[in-house]
Design a protein that fits this description.
The complex is a heterodimer of chains A (246) and B (162). Chain A is an all-alpha fold. Chain A has helices at 3-8, 11-43, 57-84, 87-118, 127-147, 152-166, 169-179, 199-231, 236-243. Chains A and B meet through helix 3, helix 6 and helix 7 of A and helix 1, strand 6, helix 4 and helix 5 of B.
């Protein structure tokens, strides 16, 4: 039953399968983001109250989705690493953290730029904004903790524990706008409920969200491959690969 | 599953569950401090401190905005459709400020139940609409806010709708 997880955990197998997946993920990501951003920024109609500043949604919402999804993926990878000792899971978790931190920063920054004209303030300590800032600190903490140990294994384990415990922040972020009075509005984009915007605004947003996810998968696969080569540099199959030429 | 791995899994799940409970209880205990603003109902019930800076939130009542033509002074009423709160403000209002719009007001309550505001923030809801659609709705005798309410269907959780 657990054979699959061990097979997937073999760095050599992962290296092979990811090479075949990568071109698909990259072309999907580039295509979706290109079409989505041109559609969203140039062709979608302006909002009746916010005018053109609403277009920040096409970066803000996908970035905020990714910021949270990457943390959950990192925590799952950390769990797999801690319980089943799968090294590839730890490598994936290690390369995901900087991307997640970047996405969190992008979400906070774009939100701030949107908040100034819309709300009249760059920043307010409401539950959604504060919990998102905590997410950024958690990412920074995970990255710093991993680097703080001389032994790579101790660093990996400390970072894993922090990502698994830190995942508690994710439902707090998601439901903060429902649990408390906040300045931030409830979710505009959801797969499960009726869209709160007309289709000509919603479609480009959907493409952008899917495009950002494809980008996340592509870049994680690529960076995990690099990490495999770096950590397994002494292994027979890597040497053979290097000897065989690029 | 290997017993050692099973043990490890249970330790991790236990750790995460305990931390979640600790954080959940903390947030529950701090719930009134985490709320960004008081609603007019809470202020009417005397839950808000007098002569200390606080935030109040609600909808700007239709027809309540009164501007002083000589200065930047403006008075308006915010409401949660149960209680009303009178607000006095002197300064520039955000672009999105209008009647029927949600706002968060920073200021102090005087003894008479008026809020002396030092800052007014507009609150945007989760609904987006092209201007042509908004115009068409208005021409048909609906307000864009009605569309928003309809979009939310039956979901009407108190403060979340501001």
């Amino acid at each position: 039953m657990w054979a699959f997880i061990h097979k997937f955990g073999s760095p050599k197998w992962f290296y092979g399968i990811s090479a075949r997946l990568l071109p698909w993920c990259w072309s999907l990501a580039v295509m979706l983001i290109l079409v989505g951003s041109v559609w969203g920024l140039a062709f979608a109609p302006a909002d009746y109250q916010q005018g053109d500043s609403f277009r920040i949604i096409y970066v803000h919402v996908p970035a905020a989705f990714l910021a949270q999804s990457i943390f959950v993926s990192m925590a799952v990878a950390a769990l797999v690493f801690m319980v089943w000792k799968i090294k590839v899971a730890d490598m994936a978790a290690a390369v995901m953290a900087p991307l997640g931190a970047t996405m969190t920063f992008v979400a906070l920054f774009t939100g701030s730029v949107w908040g100034m004209p819309t709300w009249g303030t760059w920043w307010i300590w409401d539950a959604r904004l504060t919990s998102m800032l905590i997410l950024l600190f958690l990412y920074v903490g995970v990255i710093a903790l991993r680097g703080a140990f001389t032994s790579r294994d101790s660093g990996a384990r400390a970072a894993s524990v922090l990502s698994m415990v830190g995942v508690i922040n994710i439902p707090v972020i998601k439901y903060s706008v429902d649990w408390w009075y906040t300045l931030h509005q409830p979710a505009s984009f959801s797969i499960t409920s009726r869209p709160s915007m007309p289709v000509e605004m919603w479609w480009p947003l959907l493409l952008m969200v899917l495009g950002f996810y494809a980008f996340f998968i592509a870049i994680t696969l690529m960076r995990t491959r690099n990490e495999i080569l770096r950590r397994e540099a002494g292994k027979h199959w890597v040497r053979e690969l290097a000897a065989g030429g690029a | 599953m290997h017993p050692k791995r099973k043990q490890k899994l249970f330790i991790i799940l236990g750790l995460v569950t305990l931390s979640a409970m600790a954080i959940g209880l903390t947030l529950y205990a701090l719930r009134s401090n985490i709320n960004l603003f008081f609603s007019p109902v809470q202020i009417a019930a005397g839950e808000a401190p007098v002569q200390r800076t606080l935030r109040a939130g609600g909808m700007v009542k239709e027809g309540s905005v009164a501007r002083d033509p000589e200065s930047l002074d403006v008075g308006f009423v915010i409401t949660d459709y149960v209680e009303d709160l009178e607000v006095r403000y002197s300064g520039i209002l955000p672009d999105l400020f209008r009647e029927g719009q949600g706002v968060v007001v920073v200021g102090q309550l005087d003894g008479k139940g008026h809020l002396m505001a030092s800052e007014v923030l507009a609150k945007h809801d989760e609904n987006y609409m092209p201007s042509e659609v908004a115009d068409a709705l208005e021409a048909a005798g609906y307000s864009p806010a009605d569309y928003g309410d309809a979009a939310k269907n039956t979901e009407s959780a108190g403060g979340a709708t501001y």
